[in-house]
Structures are given as C-alpha cells and as structure tokens.
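Final report, Chapter 2: Outcomes

The project's central promise was a pipeline that accepts a single protein chain and returns its three-dimensional structure in a standardized token representation, suitable for archiving and comparison. That pipeline is now operational. To close this chapter, we reproduce one record exactly as it appears in the project archive, with the input sequence first and the structure output second.
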Amino acid sequence: MDEPEPARGTQGRGEVMSAVRVLLVDDQPLLRTGFRLILEAEADIAVVGEAGDGAAAVELTRSLLPDVVLMDIRMPGTNGIEATRRIVRDGAASHDPKVLILTTFDLDEYVIEAVRAGASGFLLKDSPPEDLVQAIRIVAAGDAIVAPSVTRRLLDKFATRLPAVHDAAPPPGLDTLTEREREVLTHVARGLSNAEIAAELVVSETTVKTHVGNVLAKLGLRDRVQAVVYAYETGLSRPGQN
C-alpha cells in the first residue's frame, strides 16, 4: 500500500480542513505525480494521499476520508470498478466519498460498469488540467460529470450491451414521472447542464434543478450519471438521437 502524503498547497490547518480532500488512485506513479502537481496548485484542493491499486484505495479512503477519489479503472489486483463498488458501499452519512473515474477511449467498455458501481462521473486521462480541477469541484459539490462529448460517445458505442427495449409496459418508476420531468430527463441524457436545459425549456435554472432532484428521487438514482444510463436502458433515449 502506498503511504499517504501530507496535504500540500494550502496555507494552514484551517484551509486544509475546508479544502476538497482528494485521493489519487493510479498504478502509474508518473501520472499520480502529474495529477498532484496540477491539483496542489489550487488553494481549494488538498491531495491527502495516493494509492497504486484498488485495494489500497479502499483502505486509504477509510482512513483518510477524502471527499473525492480520482480512480483509474485498469490496475493490478483490485481494479477501479470493484474498488468503486466497495468505497460507495462503505460510504455513510458522515462520510460519503465521491468517485471520479479516469478513463481512455480504448477502455470505454468499463465505464458503464463503473457508473453502475456508484461512480459520480468519469474524465478522460488526456483532459486539460483545468477540466480535471473543475470536475473535482463539481463532484465534490454533489453533482456529476455528464459531458456530451464523453457520455453520449460511450453510450452510443456500447448501446448493444444495454438491454433490449420492447413495446411493453413502461419500466418501473418511469410512469411516476410527470411529462415535464420526462422531458428534463431526456435533456439530461443528452448531457445538457441545468443552465442549458433551462434555456431549452425557457424556465429558470432553479426550476430545472428541482425537476432533476424529483427525477432522481422518484427513480431511486444516485446522480445525473446514473440518470443518463437509466434513460438509455429504458429506451427514453436512443443512440444517435440529438
């Protein structure tokens, strides 16, 4: 197990406590070093430790209590998907760590499994540094990363792996949504942000946020990422739709 390193990039104890606590998980030390350098340049982010495999990530999450776990998928031993499942399962009301998955397009087939395991989003390894920083802030705030350039490409590519949709009764839960909530869910599946959905529907962003919250609650979904997968699985959204 890699030894945790003290958080750096903050001025004092008060700042460390208020900063977003991040655990870096990747089997490549050079990548972890690169991520650390990027994140420690931000005053509101503190890297509290590093792990080189999934098993170490689970143990360090329990001991270090990070807010966000930046998780690679393919690693020796316990992979990122199983580690995500364990971390989410262990989460409690007092400590509910969010997992942000790192992926490359040649490993896309693992992403949907990671989402089902409870990941709050995913990010490409070659994303610009500013995207990494913003993604961590978004996930830490309780939202999820659902970018059209990533989400739709993944789901379109692997749509054949999703269950077939038949002309039968609507899936459990879908019939509990109002017409407006279904419309909002469709836009979420397209990867639109609350602001973009508000512009499409000509309503306030607060109204959209309320609808999204209602959709998640009624369908028993963790976040927007799971809402995207749900929309594809139920046939509410189909590959290739605009």
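Archive annotation: The beta strands are 20-25, 45-51, 68-72, 98-103, 121-124.
This record, like all others produced under the grant, will remain available to the consortium after the project formally closes.
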